[in-house]
C-alpha cells in the first residue's frame, strides 16, 4: 500500500472505528495510536556514512523507522550538517534533535562519569560491557547520570577491542613514550600523559594528515577494519597490539527524555530493541571484518605488527588505575559509577579466566 493510500485507509478506519466504538467494539485505541506519527532527527558525531560508526547510526535509524512501519521515522544528520560533532549532546538535551549518536567519553566535560560508559583502559571488554550495562546495574547509573541533562542513554554499538596504535618508531620500553605526541582521546590519553607522552585529541577526519605532516608522531583510531580504510599504513610503519586503552568501546545513542517518554509503549519498545540490535550488529561487523583487514595491512602494505611488552603493559595498567581513581574522586556520581564498574571488573576477571580466556587457551593448543 502506498503512503497516501495508507493514510487514507487509516483515516477511514479511524472514522469507522469511532462509529463502532460507540456500540462497544474494541480496537479503537490501537487505530488511534497508529494515527500519530513521530518524525525524529538523529544528530551524529561522525561524518555521514562513516564506515562502521556512521553506518551503525544509519542502521539504527532504519531499524526504528521500519519496525514502526513509519510511525516513528528517524532522519540521520552527519557531523556538521545540523550541529557540529561535539554539540550533539547539548542539541538533544534542549530538543533541537531527538537523538544523538556518539561515544560517552566525548562528554567528559559535562561529567567525568560519562567516560565509564565508553571505554576504560584495562576495563571491561565488549562482552563484559554488555553484561554490565544490560544486567549489571550499568544502565540504571547511566540513566541517572544522563537524566540530569534531560536525556535517556542507550548503548548502540561496540567496536570490540581496539588496536594499540600506529607508530614510526618501536616502543620497547615505557621511556619510548617520552615526548611522543600521540592522538588518543579519553582516559587513555590521561594514561599516556603519565608515561611522558603528549596526548592529542583530534577528530577522525584530521588524523591522517596530522600523522603524515609530522604534527603528531603516533595515533590510535579503532582497529584494522577502520584503520585500513583511513590509510594509516601510508604514514606509519608499526602497528601495535593490544588496544589496552579501549578494550571494548561502547557507542551510544542518547535520546531526549521528554520525547522518549512521550512515545506510546510499543514505540518505546521498538526504540529499546533497535538499540540492542544495533549494538550487537556493530560488534558482529567489526568481528567479521577485522582479521581480513589485518591480513591486508601486513601482507599487502608491509605493516610491521608488534605486541607491546609485558613491562610496557604492566606500567600502563598501573598508571591507568591511578587515573581512574582520580576520576572517581572528582564528584559523587563518578565515585558511584566507578564503584559499580570496579565490582563488575572484579567478577569479570574471575569468570573470564575460566570462561573466555580459558577457552581461547584450550583452542590454541590444537588450532594454531
Ligand atoms: Ca580509539
Describe this protein's structure.
The chain is α/β, with parallel strands linked by helices. The chain has two domains: 37-158 and 248-287, Bacterial extracellular solute-binding protein, family 7 (D-Maltodextrin-Binding Protein, domain 2, 3-Layer(aba) Sandwich), CATH 3.40.190.170; 165-247 and 289-364, 3-Layer(aba) Sandwich (D-Maltodextrin-Binding Protein, domain 2). 51% of the residues lie in helices and 14% in strands. It contains 14 helices and eleven strands. It has helices at 3-21, 28-35, 54-67, 88-94, 126-135, 138-147, 186-194, 204-213, 224-230, 257-261, 265-300, 310-328, 332-354, 356-366; strands at residues 38-44, 72-77, 99-102, 151-158, 165-167, 181-183, 198-200, 218-219, 238-241, 250-256, 304-307. A five-stranded mixed beta sheet has the order 2-1-3-10-4, sandwiched between helices. Helix 7 packs across helix 12 (310-328). The model is unreliable at 16-28 (pLDDT under 50). Calcium ion (CA) binds next to loops.
Which features does this protein show?
D-Maltodextrin-Binding Protein, domain 2; 368 residues; single chain
Number of domains: 2
Low-confidence stretches: 16-28
Give the overall shape: globular
Number of strands: 11
Helix-strand sequence: HHEHEHEHHEEEHEHEHEEHHEHHH
Query: Can you name the CATH architecture of the largest domain?
Result: 3-Layer(aba) Sandwich
The class by helix and strand makeup works out as alpha/beta
What would the average pLDDT be, to the nearest integer? 92
Strand order of the largest sheet: 2-1-3-10-4
| Main sheet properties | 5 strands, mixed
Report the CATH topology name of the largest domain: D-Maltodextrin-Binding Protein, domain 2
Amino acid at each position: 500500500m502506498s503512503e497516501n493510500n495508507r493514510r487514507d485507509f487509516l483515516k477511514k478506519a479511524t472514522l469507522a472505528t469511532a462509529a463502532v466504538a460507540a456500540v462497544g467494539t474494541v480496537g479503537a485505541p490501537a487505530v488511534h495510536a497508529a494515527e500519530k506519527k513521530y518524525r525524529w532527527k538523529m544528530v551524529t558525531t561522525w561524518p555521514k556514512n562513516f564506515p562502521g560508526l556512521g553506518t551503525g547510526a544509519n542502521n539504527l535509524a532504519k531499524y526504528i523507522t521500519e519496525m514502526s512501519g513509519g510511525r516513528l521515522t528517524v532522519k540521520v544528520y552527519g557531523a556538521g550538517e545540523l550541529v557540529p560533532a561535539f554539540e550533539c549532546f547539548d542539541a538533544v538535551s534542549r530538543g533541537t534533535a531527538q537523538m544523538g549518536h556518539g561515544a560517552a567519553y566525548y562528554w567528559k566535560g559535562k561529567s567525568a562519569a560519562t567516560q565509564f560508559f565508553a571505554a576504560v583502559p584495562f576495563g571491561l571488554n565488549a562482552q563484559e560491557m554488555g553484561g554490565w550495562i544490560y544486567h549489571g546495574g550499568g544502565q540504571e547509573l547511566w540513566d541517572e547520570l544522563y537524566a540530569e541533562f534531560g536525556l535517556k542513554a542507550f548503548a548502540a554499538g561496540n567496536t570490540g577491542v581496539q588496536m594499540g596504535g600506529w607508530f614510526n618508531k618501536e616502543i620497547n620500553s615505557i621511556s619510548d613514550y617520552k615526548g611522543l605526541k600521540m592522538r588518543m582521546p579519553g582516559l587513555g590519553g590521561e594514561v599516556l600523559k603519565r608515561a611522558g607522552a603528549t596526548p592529542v585529541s583530534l577528530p577522525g577526519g584530521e588524523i591522517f594528515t596530522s600523522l603524515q605532516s609530522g604534527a603528531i608522531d603516533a595515533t590510535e583510531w579503532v582497529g584494522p577494519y577502520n584503520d585500513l580504510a583511513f590509510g594509516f599504513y601510508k604514514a606509519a610503519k608499526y602497528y601495535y597490539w593490544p588496544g589496552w586503552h579501549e578494550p571494548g568501546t561502547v557507542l551510544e545513542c542518547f535520546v531526549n527524555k521528554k520525547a522518549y517518554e512521550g512515545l506510546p509503549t510499543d514505540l518505546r519498545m521498538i526504540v529499546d530493541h533497535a538499540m540492542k540490535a544495533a549494538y550487537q550488529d556493530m560488534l558482529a561487523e567489526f568481528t567479521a571484518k577485522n582479521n581480513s583487514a589485518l591480513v591486508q595491512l601486513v601482507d599487502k602494505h608491509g605493516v610491521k605488527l608488534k605486541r607491546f611488552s609485558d613491562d610496557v603493559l604492566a606500567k600502563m595498567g598501573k598508571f591507568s588505575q591511578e587515573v581512574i581513581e582520580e576520576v572517581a574522586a572528582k564528584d559523587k556520581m563518578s565515585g558511584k559509577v566507578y564503584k559499580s564498574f570496579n565490582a563488575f571488573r572484579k567478577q569479570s576477571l574471575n569468570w573470564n579466566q575460566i570462561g573466555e580466556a580459558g577457552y581461547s587457551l584450550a583452542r590454541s593448543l590444537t588450532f594454531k
